[in-house]
């Protein structure tokens, strides 16, 4: 609680204090957010020995050796393909299931509507890592360890509730009158969904898709628990395994691998950043 | 809501008799799939926690024996206390940072889009990549911090070799990953506040601190609840970040319940006791979420209804 003072310093502080605080916080935000990524990028271009000496922040010579080494790893294309396949399936299937469910919740009044909607929320408060113990046991019994199916099943199950909750909000905010006029024009449910609801809720569909993509691309605990063959690993799993599999720590390779696993998703995010940020800020996405 | 009445009438397609079932046909496939997998896992886990398993996964029912053993296990007790302090510190630091970022992202005018876009980037970096990046920030030879210290002529520190420092670094990595989403949620709340309220308060001579506590904070209570749920959910179930950052070390200084659960089940192959830890994580997280929902969402609704 600052008391009104008339000294010139106090006046200066009162005028500038908030501005300085804002700029300080903003600078901190930028440094805090960017440093780990920029450091990984810089280190990935360095010589491994140069990293050990920790003399300068910038590479002496910008080398691509680390990237060449990563791309020529015997399994790299396999891990990349695994990640892509699992991510595509675990984005498209949950989206379809969620679009149907969200349309049902947003447009119909029916018995148990609230209970069913709540049931869709519960999975979001279950810590996913806690499920790895029983899932490993159950999936072993079903003989599904080291298969794509087991990754599809678990990834889809964890993405559907997220996508549904985002889309219920977006569908619900579209005025019913627009759909009713489409009904009068003879459009049935599928046509209304395709030609009215989806185009109008497009930012929501994009956001849901990006967040499903994010979950699947970055998922680690399920693949750790349900896969143990080298050729079934995804990129995050292999990144984790690098720690043990490299005899002498080649930090440049390690950083290059990290950048390559992070980059594809960041590019998707940068392309669709506006829609995703707006959706989260507008409160349409809640954990 | 006694009948299943569609709000929108279907066109005369002849499928009238199916109509009452339409919403269920839309809603249930996804739900049955989710419940099938996750419900099966939760129930399977609870059953597993009541059994003893051998190396070949043969199970014998032992009742509550696993629970008694786990709760008496000093290593579990230490992991539990560690998790609680990890969660509490993460929540306090995480919410403080989220709130600061949200306020500053609200205030900034020039480059607003850029700063908002940038602030969310860590949300898209996987937990493993986050951990690896933080290892190279703090690693002894070649880490960013020690390189900066060397340039300043200061001695290098073994950040990840010291139990206390490693715990702090783990919390920082956790915050780096979870703060962005929470701050955008809070920003959404701050944006909905009517600017006239601020102007009126400023005219009445309120200072920024008073304005924050009397106007901003009460009005974003529901958003604060949502971000609290997010922050504590992430902190409680932190696993990949800590596993890849420190593997629970040094000297078990960062061995959280989730890490010990993985160790018990997948390294020691004691699935029964591992499942007990799963139940512990589940119960704690659910109770915490329910408390938040009761305080922030329900409480707020009752309050606003009473105010009408």
From TrEMBL, chain A:
Q: Which Gene3D superfamilies match?
A: MetI-like (1.10.3720.10)
Q: Which UniProt keywords apply?
A: Cell membrane, Membrane, Transmembrane, Transmembrane helix, Transport
Localization: Cell membrane
Which Pfam families does the record associate with it? Answer: BPD_transp_1
Q: Topology in the membrane? A: Multi-pass membrane protein
Taxonomy, superkingdom: Bacteria
Q: What transmembrane ranges does the database entry give?
A: 20-42, 79-103, 115-135, 147-174, 195-217, 251-272
Positions of the ABC transmembrane type-1 domain? 80-272
Question: What CDD domains does the database record attribute to this sequence?
Answer: TM_PBP2
Q: Which family does it belong to?
A: Belongs to the binding-protein-dependent transport system permease family.
Record protein name field: Carbohydrate ABC transporter permease
Taxonomy of origin reads: Bacteria, Pseudomonadati, Pseudomonadota, Alphaproteobacteria, Rhodobacterales
Automatic annotation (TrEMBL), chain B:
Matching entries from Gene3D superfamilies are given as: MetI-like
Q: Which domain of life is it from?
A: Bacteria
- The transmembrane residues are 21-48, 84-108, 120-145, 165-187, 271-293
ABC transmembrane type-1 domain ranges (all copies): 80-292
Tell whether Isomerase is among the UniProt keywords: no
Its family remark reads: Belongs to the binding-protein-dependent transport system permease family.
Q: Which UniProt keywords apply?
A: Cell membrane, Membrane, Transmembrane, Transmembrane helix, Transport
Give the range the annotation lists for the signal sequence.
none
Q: What is this protein called?
A: Sugar ABC transporter permease
The UniProt entry lists membrane topology as: Multi-pass membrane protein
Question: SUPFAM superfamilies of this UniProt entry?
Answer: MetI-like
Localization in the cell:
Cell membrane
Q: Please name the PROSITE patterns in this protein's record.
A: ABC_TM1 (PS50928)
Is the keyword Acyltransferase assigned to this protein?
Answer: no
């Amino acid at each position: 609680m600052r008391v009104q003072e008339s000294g010139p310093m106090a006046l200066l502080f009162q005028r500038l204090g908030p501005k300085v605080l804002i700029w300080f916080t903003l600078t901190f935000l930028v440094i805090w957010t960017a440093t780990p990524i920029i450091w990984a990028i810089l280190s990935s271009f360095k010589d491994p020995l140069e990293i050990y000496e920790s003399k300068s922040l910038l590479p002496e010579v910008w080398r691509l050796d680390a990237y060449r080494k990563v791309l020529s790893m015997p399994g790299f294309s396999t891990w990349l393909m695994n990640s892509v396949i699992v991510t595509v399936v675990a984005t498209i299937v949950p989206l379809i299931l969620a679009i149907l469910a969200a349309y049902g919740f947003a447009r119909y009044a029916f018995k148990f509507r609230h209970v069913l909607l709540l049931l869709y929320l519960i999975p979001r408060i279950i810590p996913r890592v806690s499920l790895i113990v029983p899932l490993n046991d159950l999936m072993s019994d079903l003989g599904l360890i080291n298969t794509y199916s087991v990754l599809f099943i678990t990834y889809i199950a964890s993405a559907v509730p997220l996508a549904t909750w985002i889309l219920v909000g977006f569908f619900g905010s579209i005025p019913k009158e627009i759909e009713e006029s489409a009904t009068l024009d003879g459009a049935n449910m599928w046509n209304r969904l395709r030609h009215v609801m989806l185009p109008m809720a497009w930012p929501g569909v994009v956001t849901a898709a990006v967040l499903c993509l994010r979950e699947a691309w970055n998922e680690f605990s399920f693949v750790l628990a349900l896969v143990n063959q080298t050729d079934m690993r995804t990129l995050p799993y292999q990144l984790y395994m690098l720690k043990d599999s490299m005899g002498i720590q080649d930090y440049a390779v390690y950083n290059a691998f990290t950048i390559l696993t992070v980059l594809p998703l960041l590019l998707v995010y940068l392309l669709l950043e506006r829609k995703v940020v707006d959706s989260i800020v507008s409160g349409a996405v809640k954990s | 809501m006694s009948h299943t009445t569609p709000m929108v009438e279907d066109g005369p397609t002849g499928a009238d008799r199916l109509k009452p079932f339409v919403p269920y046909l839309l809603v249930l496939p996804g739900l049955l799939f989710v419940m099938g997998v996750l419900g099966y896992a939760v129930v399977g886990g609870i059953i597993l926690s009541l059994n003893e398993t051998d190396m070949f996964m043969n199970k014998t029912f032992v009742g509550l024996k696993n629970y008694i053993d786990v709760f008496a296990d000093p290593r579990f007790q230490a992991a539990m206390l560690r998790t609680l302090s990890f969660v509490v510190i993460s929540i306090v630091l995480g919410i403080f940072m989220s709130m600061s970022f949200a306020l500053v992202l609200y205030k900034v005018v020039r480059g607003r889009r850029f700063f908002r876009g940038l602030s969310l980037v860590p949300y898209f970096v996987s937990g493993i990549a986050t951990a690896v990046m933080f290892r190279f920030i703090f690693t002894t030879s070649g880490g960013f911090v020690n390189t900066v210290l060397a340039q300043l002529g200061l001695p290098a520190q073994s950040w990840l070799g010291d139990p206390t420092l490693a715990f702090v670094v783990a919390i920082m990595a956790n915050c780096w990953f979870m703060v962005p989403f929470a701050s955008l949620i809070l920003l959404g709340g701050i944006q909905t506040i009517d600017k006239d309220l601020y102007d009126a308060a400023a005219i009445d001579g309120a200072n920024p601190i008073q304005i924050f506590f009397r106007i901003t904070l009460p009005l974003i209570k529901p958003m604060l609840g949502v971000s609290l749920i997010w922050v504590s959910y992430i902190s409680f179930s932190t696993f990949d970040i800590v596993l890849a950052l420190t593997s629970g070390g040094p000297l078990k200084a960062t061995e959280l319940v989730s890490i010990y659960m993985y160790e018990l089940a997948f390294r020691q192959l004691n699935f029964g006791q591992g499942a007990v830890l799963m139940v512990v994580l589940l119960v704690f997280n659910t109770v915490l979420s329910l408390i938040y929902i009761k305080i922030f969402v329900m409480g707020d609704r009752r309050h606003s209804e009473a105010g009408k």
